[in-house]
């Protein structure tokens, strides 16, 4: 035990151990200077040259980024709210325009319907006027035919007819003088009746032998045929008169309806003017609203462009920070590799020191054993010399 403790104390005092300890201390002192903490991103001023990028604190940039992100989110929410409001206003305006279009289409349909009915009434009036003129012509023809029949009757009875008076137009016959055919007895048709219808100018003394003479069968048949024709013409005239009354009533009704439709058309034109004024007012309001919306959109576009610029700046700054971070990570990896290399070298040196210590201990043991043998031999020699001197 004393021998093992003695070599250990001598080994601590040996110069080789002191040199190795100084080497380890120098290595240990250099290690903190070269190897930094892995959490620190700034490089060591002794190990690496200073970076040209300005040193910015990462927590502060992260805080600025968060605040800018919140501001951007708020601006986006405001823009979305404005867009939703604009969409609501546009929908409201579209609904208003649709309602006005529907009302205007109804008014237009009523106006077109009134126009069509007016056109139909005009066409009907034209048709009725044509029918009336045709009936007037037929009545005039029937009047002329009756005159011819009267003349033929007078000729058959052998009367000398005077020149007839000029006939009046059909409208004068209807309006001023009523027809005398109703008053005339067709069964007792005689020359005197014809003279009364034609006027007092034909009242001249007639010979009496014509009245006493009996008509022949041929003349009687002709007279009967003429009577039948006169009856038919009288019936026809009565029917035409009734038709004329009906047509006049229809014309009055149609004129009343036309006046009503004119009043309706005037009301529709007034309502149309009111609708046009309201539509113009709504268009002006719509144009003003569109102008305001366009201004808001331009403002939002400007805000978005400024936001895009800010985002571009933030992206550039973020890219710079990412590049700096990547550079710092590269430095950190290099430092870690240097640290690992130094640890390996330290391990090698420790192993070498252990080997040297073992070699020293062996050599010490060898030297101690050699010294012991030398001492023993010297002591034996001295003992023998002393013994030889004593003897």
TrEMBL record:
Residues 28-69, 155-218 are annotated as: Disordered. Residues 155-200 have a biased composition (Basic and acidic residues). Keywords: Coiled coil. The keyword Secreted does not apply. Residues 223-271, 304-366 form a coiled coil. The keyword Coiled coil applies. This is Coiled-coil domain containing 102A. It comes from Eleutherodactylus coqui (Puerto Rican coqui).
């Amino acid at each position: 035990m004393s021998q093992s403790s003695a070599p250990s104390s001598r080994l601590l005092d040996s110069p080789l151990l002191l040199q190795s300890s100084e080497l380890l201390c120098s290595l240990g002192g250099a290690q903190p200077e070269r190897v930094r903490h892995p959490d620190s991103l700034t490089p060591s001023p002794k190990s690496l040259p200073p970076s040209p990028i300005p040193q910015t604190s990462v927590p502060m940039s992260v805080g600025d980024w968060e605040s800018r992100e919140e501001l951007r989110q708020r601006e986006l929410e405001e823009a979305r709210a404005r867009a939703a409001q604009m969409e609501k206003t546009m929908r409201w305006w579209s609904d208003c325009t649709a309602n006005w279009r529907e009302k205007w289409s109804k008014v237009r349909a009523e106006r077109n319907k009134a126009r069509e009915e007016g056109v139909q009434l005009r066409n009907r009036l034209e048709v009725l006027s044509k029918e009336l003129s045709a009936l007037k012509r037929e009545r005039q023809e029937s009047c002329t035919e009756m005159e011819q029949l009267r003349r033929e009757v007078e000729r058959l009875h052998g009367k000398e007819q005077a020149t007839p008076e000029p006939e009046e137009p059909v409208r004068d016959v209807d309006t001023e003088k009523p027809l005398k055919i109703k008053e005339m007895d067709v069964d007792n048709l005689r020359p005197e009746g014809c003279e009364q219808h034609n006027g007092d100018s034909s009242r001249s003394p007639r010979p009496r032998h014509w009245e006493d003479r009996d008509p022949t069968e041929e003349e009687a048949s002709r007279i009967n045929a003429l009577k039948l024709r006169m009856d038919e013409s009288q019936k026809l005239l009565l029917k035409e008169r009734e038709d004329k009354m009906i047509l006049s009533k229809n014309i009055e009704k149609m004129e009343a309806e036309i006046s009503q439709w004119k009043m309706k058309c005037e009301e529709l034109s007034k309502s149309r003017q009111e609708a046009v004024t309201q539509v113009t007012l709504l268009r002006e309001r719509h144009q003003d609203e569109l102008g305001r919306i366009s201004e808001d959109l331009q403002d939002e576009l400007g805000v978005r462009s400024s936001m895009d610029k800010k985002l571009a700046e933030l992206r550039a700054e973020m890219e710079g920070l990412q590049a700096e971070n990547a550079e710092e990570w590269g430095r950190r990896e290099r430092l870690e590799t240097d640290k690992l290399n130094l640890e390996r070298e330290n391990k090698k040196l420790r192993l070498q020191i252990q080997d040297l210590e073992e070699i020293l201990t062996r050599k010490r043991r060898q030297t101690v054993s050699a010294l012991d043998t030398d001492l023993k031999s010297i002591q034996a020699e001295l003992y023998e010399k002393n013994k030889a001197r004593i003897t």
